[in-house]
Amino acid sequence: xxxxxxxxxxxxxxxxxxxxxxxxxxxxxxxxxxxxxxxxxxxxxxxxxxxxxxxxxxxxxxxxxxxxxxxxxxxxxxxxxxxxxxxxxxxxxxxxxxxxxxxxxxxxxxxxxxxxxxxxxxxxxxxxxxxxxxxxxxxxxxxxxxxxxxxxxxxxxxxxxxxxxxxxxxxxxxxxxxxxxxxxxxxxxxxxxxxxxxxxxxxxxxxxxxxxxxxxxxxxxxxxxxxxxxxxxxxxxxxxxxxxxxxxx
Length: 249
Known about the structure:
The protein is α/β, with parallel strands linked by helices. It has helices at residues 13-16, 22-35, 52-59, 71-81, 121-131, 148-155, 210-220, and strands at 42-46, 63-68, 88-92, 105-110, 135-146, 159-163, 167-176, 181-192, 195-206, 223-229, 242-248.
C-alpha cells in the first residue's frame, strides 16, 4: 500500500502542530525509558519528522540518531538541530527497510503514531526483529500509538479543517472497521497571489490494539512490557486515546 509521507504536509506541519507540548512528550518518553533501567546515552528515534521531539531529547543531553522516510521533514529537522553537531544524526530511510549497521543501541523511541503508519503486522514484526539484535542487553524500547478507540471513534469518518493567513487544510478520514484501517485524505490549500494551489496527500494508519502490540513484542523477545494511557502513569482503558509502551531486551 503506497503512502505518500509528508511530501506537501511538511511545509505546514509545525504550524498545524503548534499546540502540542513537545517538551512534555519528550520528558514522558525519557521517563518511560528510565523506569526500565539505566538512563540511556544514545537514542535511535524512528519517524523523527521535523525534529520536534529530537530537539527536546538533545536539550536533555541525549545523543540522537533520527530516521524518517521524508527528506522534506528531515530538512526542517536539520535546521532545528544544527547547533548540536554530531550529537544529532538524521538519516532518510524507510523504517520498515532500514539498512545501517548500528549496534549496542541504548534506547529506541518512536513517537506520535509512527507504528500506526506501519499498516502490515508482518512489517511491524520484522522491524522489531531488526531492532532487537541491535540493542544492547537491557536496552529500552519505548513508543506510543493512537489507540483503536481514537482512530475509530474520534478521527474515523470525520472531517476537520482550519484556515490560516495564507493557507488552509481540509482533512477527511474514512475508517474501515473490518480492516481496522483509517484512510486520511489531506487537502492543503496554499495561497499564490489571489488564488490557492491545492495539494493532496493520502495517509493510512492501522488501529492496533494493546493486546496485538504486546503479542508482537513478546514474540520478538522483549520483556517487562508495560503500558500506560494518555501521558499518565496509569493503565489504559477503553477510551484511552494514546497508549504508551515500554519494554527491554
